[in-house]
Amino acid sequence: MLFDQNVILFDKEASDKQEALSILADSLYKAGSVTEEFKPAILKRESNFPTALNTETIGVAIPHTDADKVITPQIGFMRLKTPVKFLQMGDNSEVQVKLIFMLALKKSDDQLKMLQTLMGLFQDKETLAKLETINDKDEFIKIMENVGIIK
Amino acid sequence: MKTIMVVCGSGIATSTVAEGKIRDYLQSKGDLDKVKIYKGNIAQYVNNVDDYDVFVSTVVVPDNIKDKVINAVPLLTGINTDKVYEQIMDKLGFEK
User: Are the Cβ atoms of A116 and B10 closer than 8 angstroms?
Assistant: First the structure.
């Protein structure tokens, strides 16, 4: 299951995107979801191909890298206490990112649905607002179930 | 048969989402059977832009091909999606 390793972090402080990505990648590594190469690959890929997206309300990022660095599919979530600067996918414009969904995915059509659902979530202002205020993992899991990211 | 290439950094994640959206749109227009949609990573296809009728990307592309490539990020955020579909239909020569 995509969040079963409980890599769900609230109000972490990071001074820049490298630090933010490192905290989350380290957590996924500790949880056994990814290999040691995952973190450097995530950082490299983010600088080559930025993954932030401006939603109508807040900035989000979906850092990810090659499937061969993933052991078991998992999504790491982190909410930043103070947004940090990322670049937007596709046009490199500046985005102040508040929520990060780090995707550790294997190549599979099953994940298409999940990704589509995640993108749908980014268009859902009410749910995004909830993710900005909740403080507990169970509540987070419940929201993920409600929107259909966890089945 | 017209061709569309959808690329992202890996060829797995966001290109898959963008491809799904384009597929749904073409289906809704009744044009899906006239198009073959491919998916890949930008590094692999950066020199093949001219091989496809439409080349769509969720990642930044080099300046020399920028004008030929449609930015698919709106399909991910849901903001200004119509413009992307319009550009695709124009390049395909289909009616919007």
Answer: no
ipTM of the complex in this document: 0.82
Structure tokens of A122?
């980014």
Q: Is residue A26 part of a domain?
A: yes
Q: How far is CA A43 from its chain centroid?
A: 13
Q: For chains A and B, count residue pairs whose Cβ atoms are closer than 8 Å.
A: 67
Tens digit of each residue's pLDDT, chain B (96 residues): 999 999 998 888 899 999 999 999 999 999 999 999 999 999 999 999 999 999 999 999 999 999 999 999 999 999 999 999 999 999 999 987
What is the model's pTM?
0.91
Give CA–CA dist A25/B3, Å, rounded.
37
The residue range of the domain holding A21 is 8-107
- From the CA of B95, how many Å to the nearest CA of chain A? 26
The number of domains in chain A is 1
